[in-house]
Every structure is written in C-alpha cells, then in structure tokens.
Amino acid sequence: MQLYLVLLLISCLLTPIGASILGRCVVAKRLHDGGLDYFEGYSLENWVCLAYFESKFNPSAVYENTQGGYTGFGLFQIRNSEWCDHGKNLCAVSCSALLNPNLKDTIACAKKIVKGKKGMGAWPIWSKNCQLSDTLDRWLDGCNL
Predict the structure, then answer these.
(1) pLDDT for the residue 18
(2) Distance, CA of 124 to CA of 104 (rounded, Å)
(3) Whole-angstrom Cα distance, residue 60 to residue 97?
(4) Considering 40, 54, 64, 82, which one is annotated as catalytic?
(5) Which of 32, 133, 142, 143 makes the best surface tag, with the fewest CB within 10 Å?
C-alpha cells in the first residue's frame, strides 16, 4: 500500500499541469509517429485498442495489481515487475518515464515487449478485447492517418 501511495504521489508530481487523458486520434497519431503501425505485424488499430482497454488513453495511469503483485504504468500499463526500474527493467527505463504523455519511452518499451514470443499476447487484455475483434477499424475512424 505504501508503494502505491509513493507511486501515486510521484505520478502526480511528474504529470504536467493540465495533462489529461489523450484523445483517441492523438494516441493514434503518436503511436503511428512512433513506428507502431504494423510493427511486428500488428496494425495501428491493435495498438489503439490496447491503449483504450489498458488505460482509457491516460498516459499517466498507474494501477497497482495487488493480486498479481505488480504495478502497471502508463498508456499500456507496462508492468514494473519485468519492464521498468522497479523490477527486472528489461526496457532499461524508469517506471515514471512511462507516464510521459509524449509516449516516446512507452513506445520504445512496447516494441521490446511485443518482440517477445507472446507478441501482443503479452497483454492479456489485448487477447481478450482486441485480438479477435472484427471491429478494429473503428479505432481509427476519423483520425486522418
């Protein structure tokens, strides 16, 4: 519980004034510009879908999963136990850097994760909500990418 409060305080301090949830098309553009469209064969629609179901497009989201024993950070709720500085740090990034709305570090880490043997299946929520969806096109509707 103390760790959660510390992380929550840090995320509040690191969040720029006026920062808020990003719009769907803003997320799509930043992910596109970061090179995620068809990265490892996954369409941009898959990434936008994942961002919605993981954080509701909130790049500064922090969620402590007490049952799983990890905390998720940022747009894709990247787990601290494996990927950022509170665990194995396989992305070689601080967990707080994953809360930046420019998404640079988040995208770089997501690329490392998806290159693993599970691909986007590393995110169970993607498997549940996006993998078999026949309506992925809706995630880019009106975004002009």
Answers:
(1) 45
(2) 23
(3) 10
(4) 54
(5) 142
Nearest-angstrom CA–CA distance, 76 and 132: 19
Q: CB 10: neighbour CB atoms within 10 A?
A: 15
- Pick from 71, 23, 28: which is nearest to 46 by CA? 28
Look up 64 and say whether it is catalytic.
no
pTM of the entire predicted model: 0.85
Structural domain boundaries in the chain: 2-14+21-139
Let me know: does 77 contact 53? Beta carbons within 8 Å.
Answer: no
Q: What is the amino acid identity at position 17?
A: I
Residue that is written with structure tokens 């740090």 in the block: 89
| Rounded CA separation 66/64 (Å) | 6
Q: Write out the chain's pLDDT in tens, 145 residues.
A: 454 434 444 444 444 444 579 999 999 999 999 999 999 999 999 999 999 999 999 999 999 999 989 999 999 999 999 999 978 999 999 999 999 999 999 999 999 999 999 999 999 999 999 998 888 999 999 999 8
Q: Which CATH class is domain 2-14+21-139?
A: mainly alpha
Tokens 């940022």 belong to 74
